[in-house]
Design goal:
Layout (H helix, E strand, L loop, with lengths): L1 E6 L3 H8 L2 H6 L5 E5 L10 H4 L51 H8 L4 E5 L4 E6 L8 H23 L4 E6 L20 H8 L9 E2 H5 L26 E6 L14 H5 E6 L30 E5 L19 H4 L5 H16 L20 E4 L2 E4 L9 E3 L4 H4 L34 H9 L4 H5 L9 H39 L11 E4 L9 E5 L17 E7 L4
Parallel strand pairs: 1-2, 4-5
Antiparallel strand pairs: 1-9, 3-4, 5-7, 6-7, 8-9, 10-11, 11-12, 13-14, 14-15
Helix pairs in contact: 12-14
């Protein structure tokens, strides 16, 4: 059996990267795949991100901004998010968590950070641990409570003799070896102390499976900051884990040398082929990537198990995503129902006059949405592969009272049908001196030119010559204005370039950044070395230069 855990940093982005959900899943060649940070709300769980042949999927979405929609699946680890149907008992706190208040437990589970699946041989926890920076007291308390309640749940399951696998992004690097820039006090952090206390080495029940197999491997990271180019020098941390607790599957498992790791784990490693930055075929960081890198800022971790006994076939759990009402097509929102009715009413009003000119090879019935833009009507057929068709001008009385609406500000409008076919005037004169241009344009045509055409071919020669003069003057003036504007921008850029300091380590121009974090320096501009973040021992990496700018940027 192969299990993969992956912080995808947006599931839709990864599906787009691989072409489809089945292609993404099949690339891992795994039996169980656990994603974190999908960035999907419950109403965004459509078939293209949920359904794949050969797989059953289970989702947990944040409920903090979607209160009242108590879920479609049993999710979380407190038992309070259970689907309340007539066939099921009302949601209740699971055994072992009775000491915690209901509101307290709901606060923990409402962020959609845990999915639990029971595979008979073991219980699998797919976790996305909270992130808390050092000066955010509220999030620190939330993170402490999250892991305290989770630990209580684990202890109760182990007391019942169950095996546990914990996978996911825990947002904790347990030891100094798991962090690129770990300082002397790195391991004193309360979350790192807690995670190490849960391991077998400290007397706890869990194995850190990767470290159990690779105890001395350095530079083994799973996450890299995306805004500093840290991937270029592998300047990251190991915060994506696979933990295991419980006995092996053999009958004679009482031996102290036999456990789930020694008996059933074949391999556990980081899938570095999924990293965004690959040496040799991607650009180098210079204050930013010259081209956008595809992929997550995390790398997947996999676990290969051996000697796993077969599990009897069973029905698909009711919490599977295939039974979600929005996937099965049984649920329809009131807004979508009213939208369809409104579109139907607009179709009835849309009576196209005979004088309309349709700018399309075909014209289907007006079954799509209809928008009004100035004096134009744009018809969009939702069942057609063509672009919206434009029709000629008409008045609101031809289309009924529903179209007496004001034109949106800033929206371009078609003034006349003729303007659709007129060619825009092009300036063909490219002489640098304005005086010469005017002289050339004002020259009288030769006699041969005058006699070359009849009066019928050129009924208004004087007006035509005047139009040419005006066009030439206009084009020349426009070119002078463009040249002046270009020179001004060049001077401004030169002045800005002269104000940018040079970094001390490489004597190269710095990049400008703005403080976005709330605090006394919010909105303040500073300069830093433009190179990618990396170890201080590497002269090619960021030299650490920093300088405040003299002025604050305007806050949006």
């Amino acid at each position: 059996m192969k299990i993969v855990t992956y912080n995808v940093n947006g599931l839709r982005q990864r599906i787009s990267q691989f072409g489809s959900l089945p292609k993404l899943l099949n690339s891992f060649d795994a039996d169980i795949i656990c994603f974190q940070e999908t960035k999907l709300r419950r109403q965004e769980l459509t078939a293209d991100v949920v359904i794949a042949d050969g797989y059953e999927s289970f989702f947990s979405c944040t409920r903090t901004s979607d209160k009242g929609r108590m879920g479609y699946s049993e999710e979380g680890f407190t038992g309070l998010l259970r689907n309340n149907t007539k066939e099921e008992a009302p949601a209740a706190v699971v055994a072992g968590l009775e000491d915690f208040g209901k509101d307290e437990l709901l606060q923990i589970d409402n962020e959609g950070r845990c999915i639990i699946t029971d595979h008979s041989l073991f219980i699998l926890f797919n976790l996305y641990g909270p992130r808390a920076v050092s000066d955010d007291t509220e999030r620190i308390q939330f993170k402490l409570k999250f892991y305290k309640i989770l630990q209580r749940r684990w202890e109760h399951l182990l007391q019942q003799g169950r095996r546990i696998l914990v996978v996911g992004d825990l947002n904790i690097a347990p030891a100094a070896i798991d962090r690129c820039d770990a300082g002397p006090d790195f391991e004193k952090n309360e979350f790192r102390t807690w995670l190490r206390s849960m391991t077998v080495q400290a007397g706890g029940p869990f194995f850190d499976v990767f470290r159990a197999l690779h105890p001395d491997r350095r530079d083994a990271y799973t996450c890299w900051p995306s805004n500093t180019g840290a991937e270029q020098f592998n300047f990251g941390s190991r915060i994506d884990h696979i933990l295991s607790a419980g006995s092996c599957l053999h009958e004679d498992c009482d031996s102290p040398d036999r456990n789930f790791i020694t008996c059933h784990v074949k391999e556990c490693d980081i899938m570095t082929q999924y990293k965004r930055w690959k040496p040799g075929n991607t650009p180098r960081w210079k204050g930013g990537w010259s081209t956008k890198l595809e992929g997550s800022d995390h790398a997947p971790v996999y676990l290969s198990l051996m000697e796993i006994t077969d599990i009897p076939l069973h029905d698909t759990p009711s919490s599977s995503a295939r039974y979600f009402p929005m996937i099965r097509g049984l649920q329809q929102t009131l807004a979508s129902l009213l939208m369809k009715r409104q579109m139907s009413e607009q179709v009835e009003v849309c009576e196209v006059p005979n004088s309309f000119s349709v700018h399309s090879s075909t014209m289907r019935s007006c079954s799509g949405s209809l928008k009004r833009s100035g004096d134009n009507c744009s018809i969009r057929d939702e069942h057609s592969e063509h672009f919206p068709r434009k029709v000629g001008p008409t008045s609101s009385r031809n289309l009924g009272p529903d179209f007496k609406k004001k034109t949106r500000k800033g929206q371009s409008s078609q003034l006349s049908l003729t303007s659709f076919f007129q060619k825009s005037p092009k300036c063909s004169i490219e002489v640098g001196n304005l005086g010469n241009e005017l002289d050339d344009v004002s020259k009288e045509p030769s006699n041969s030119d005058k006699d070359s055409g009849s009066q019928e071919d050129d009924p208004m020669p004087s007006n035509s010559s005047q139009d040419e003069d005006e066009l030439s003057v206009s084009c020349s003036s426009e070119k002078e204005r463009n040249n002046t504007t270009l020179l001004q921008w060049q001077r401004i850029q030169q002045l800005m370039q002269n104000k940018i300091p040079m970094c001390k380590g490489h004597n190269e121009p710095c990049v400008s950044r703005i403080v976005k974090k709330a605090g006394p320096n919010f909105g303040r501009r500073f300069y830093t070395c433009a190179r990618a973040e990396g170890p201080s021992s590497n002269p090619e990496a960021n030299c650490g230069f920093f300088k405040w700018s003299g002025s604050k940027s305007k806050q949006k």
